[in-house]
Design a protein that fits this description.
Layout (H helix, E strand, L loop, with lengths): L10 E3 L7 H12 L4 E8 L7 H9 L5 E9 L3 H11 L5 E6 L3 H12 L9 H15 L4 E4 L9 H12 L7 E5 L3 E2 L2 E2 L2 H18 L3 H7 L9 E4 L14 H12 L5 E5 L19 H19 L6 H28 L6 H24 L10 H7 L3 H16 L1
Parallel strand pairs: 1-10, 2-3, 2-5, 3-4, 6-10
Antiparallel strand pairs: 5-9, 6-9, 7-8
Helix pairs in contact: 1-6, 4-14, 5-14, 7-8, 7-10, 7-11, 9-10, 10-12, 11-12
InterPro entries: Nucleotide-diphossugar_trans
Protein name: Cell wall biosynthesis glycosyltransferase
Keywords: Transferase
Length: 406
Amino acid sequence: MADFHQGGQVATLHNLRLNSAADLNRELNAFAATRKITLILPSLYSELEGDALPNIIDELNKVEFIHRIVVGLDRADEAQYRHACRFFSRLRADHVVLWNDGPRLQAVDARLRELDLSPSEPGKGRNVWFCVGYTIARADSAVVAVHDCDVVTYNAELLARLVYPVANPTFPYQMSKGFYPRVADGKLNGRVSRLLVTPMIHALAKVLGPRDYLDFLADFRYPLAGEFAMRTSILPDMRIPSDWGLEIGLLSEAWRNLSPRAVCQVEISDRYDHKHQDLSQEDASTGLSRMSVDICKALYRKLAADGTVFTEEIFRSIKATYYRGALDLIETYFNDARMNGLHVDRHVEEQAVEMFANNIIRAGNVFLENPMETPFISNWSRVHAADPDIIASMTRAVAEDMAEFA
């Protein structure tokens, strides 16, 4: 991974193994003296019972440049929220735990529903959205970073490399996106990114013709990475998707709101592994099958918003072009894996490609049947315009929950 290749519109910041984590931390500590950094951790309660999150807390306790950690807790009752507060009390940094299912934040959500502004679906997108709203309300951070709570290979250097591009005041970047190799247990992982997103972007460009948006997406080495950092000034106008198209949706928002030169990708780890989703070939509502449908819909919606007209014939052409390109990539990934002593099951890879190809059509049918579907949650600028007191109510709710239960 240690190269210096630049792909196109999006700057790639590599890890050339010449600068130590200690050097990065010294600089970040200096930046953080005047540019405070908040970390958002969207978490399911079940992740408190796994192996990854305790190690993440240990690693975060090595970090001095974090001003505040905002934990968004989903699927937790009162006893579980109390336990979560004790669990996260080991954090050295200032932190809060948002009890998203608690009565106080549910009351805030009820006010949002009355305004038709409540997130429509539970999940990571909704969780991150509430944490972003809380961070905006506190109005004391210049940078916000987000990463998942199931990263089993997590270390503090990952966070340092993720936030450095947007924390450094001499850099122009408003948003940074992490990338890394998905390798674990002797296998090449990252099937959705390798076998769906990459060949899908190429297929769309072949069928629809050149698009700057598709060139922008193609620049990202790992577009589905859940690790990103942003300067807080752009947060109020960012629309966060509520479905599994979160990462593609955020890149689409970056394309819409920012110059490509204000976006970068940064190499944050030599090895990355987290919880794996089932392929779920028999059930399109779960696992990688649902994820692939949501990702395709996210791409279709963005292209349609830029004037592309889709028909059943176009979707069939996209599927055929995708399928041929994805099969060719399986050969390339197999050879790459073998040269590096890794295993790739070509039969399973082809099964995945067949499912993704079918879901390209399924997503197209859903898009044509419901072209007015709006999966994006309203941005916080609109929420503030509709009810200027809502974010203050949120901060009071979180403070009262922490005071009563923590």
